Amino acid sequence: MDKTLCQYHPTQPATWQCSPCQRHFGDCCIPLNADAPDDAPACPLCRSPLTFLGAANTAQPFWERLPQFFAYALQTGPLAFAALLALASLFMPRSLILWVALLSVATKYFHSVIEASSEGRREAPSLMEAFTGEGFSLFFKQMAVFLVALGALWLAADFDSEVVFWGMNIAIVLLLPASIIRLALSRELGAALSPDQVGEVIRAMGWRYLILCAFLFILWQSPGYVAWMLASGLPKVVLMPVATFLFGYFGVVMCSMMGYAVFQYQGALGFAIAEEGAQVGLPEQEWRRRRALADAEIRLKEGQSDGALETLAKALQRDPEDLRLNERYHQLLFGLGARERCLQHLTHYLPLVARQNPALAATALLNARQLQGDYLPDDALVCEQVATALLERHRVREALSLLRNLHQRFPDYPHIPRAYLLAARGFAEGLGQLDPARKLLAYIRARHPASPLLDQVAALEETLGRLEGVRR
Ligand SMILES: [Zn+2]
Ligand SMILES: [Zn+2]
């Protein structure tokens, strides 16, 4: 099964689907609201509720996670479980009922590991889960499955043909994991023996099911081999609990792998579970902004530029001061060449962006000038702030045009000396024009003799004098 990707971001795995629109969306396109976590998100295009795909496209393949399965079985729950088996093998009396009870507890624990892993949980079930709740009948169902397998093998042995016998052996090795997974998920003997339902598990994984079987086969042999290697050195009284402990440990490793394989192929198996911690909701305000931005981007990529503008305009009605939304709206209007609307929006956007991000304001002004060659903001402070940012970008002429005749355009503006000092620097340092610079400084001295900036005026005059000396 190939991974499905976000329709609009081909590097992002899909996590949501809209059936009417036949579109897949990644988390990139569908931000979640932390204040309303139970609300199913709506399709950005048609507003019908989206279908969650869970981790079907995001889960790491099980063959890349082998160390994690061994680590999984080293948690307290599995270790306590393996220790319990080891102790029982040492001290438990030889009573059939007690052994059946122990094996049913073990079966229940193994199945709860498969179940927990299939739901993407990283924490192993505690030992208590082996003793509490329902599911003890699982042991008998599991035994029934094993008996059916043994019966099939016995029948095959009757044929007196090596080929038939080994064929049956291989078939059982290949079918058993899928059957165990089925039983763990549905807890029904019928499902575990139904060729259809077992086949569904195998079909969902495709040929990679063979990888799973190979790993499980190796793991199944492992405790035996380890015990065999230890056999020569250890007395039987020690060997028995060690072998039982290893059986418990490797059993949990195998079950966590089977469970995770189900988690990984959840999409094909027809259910959807998110990975722990994968879904993070955003605070309401941030969520509204991100959704508007994502929706606008999707509409734009669908070729619905009017829809994109509408989305942003609506979001701006709610949050008129949101810089990010305003910036995107401006970019979109400018990019689409919507001249009138863009100029109209600039009267609101430019003061806002000049306050919060002057560099961005400089870009907006240069855009405005492309739409209207003599564009001037109708606020003196905005002119001054944007001029400062433009000077930093060495756009001297554009900066100076914002400051030209400022005292006539805004007679009440209290920061004329500061603005003209800036303009004088622009002329002198940016354009190398000393005369206009000196005139501006003279204007400050004449009209604002009490200005606290006179020190800086004097310093700049001195620099101008020195520059002139160098030129002569
Ligand atoms: Zn996306
Ligand atoms: Zn839709």
From TrEMBL:
<feature type="transmembrane region" description="Helical">
    <location>
        <begin position="69"/>
        <end position="90"/>
    </location>
</feature>
<keyword id="KW-0812">Transmembrane</keyword>
<protein>
    <recommendedName>
        <fullName>Tetratricopeptide repeat protein</fullName>
    </recommendedName>
</protein>
<keyword id="KW-0472">Membrane</keyword>
<dbReference type="InterPro" id="IPR011990">
    <property type="entry name" value="TPR-like_helical_dom_sf"/>
</dbReference>
<feature type="transmembrane region" description="Helical">
    <location>
        <begin position="135"/>
        <end position="157"/>
    </location>
</feature>
<feature type="transmembrane region" description="Helical">
    <location>
        <begin position="96"/>
        <end position="114"/>
    </location>
</feature>
<feature type="transmembrane region" description="Helical">
    <location>
        <begin position="237"/>
        <end position="263"/>
    </location>
</feature>
<feature type="transmembrane region" description="Helical">
    <location>
        <begin position="206"/>
        <end position="231"/>
    </location>
</feature>
<feature type="transmembrane region" description="Helical">
    <location>
        <begin position="163"/>
        <end position="185"/>
    </location>
</feature>
<keyword id="KW-1133">Transmembrane helix</keyword>
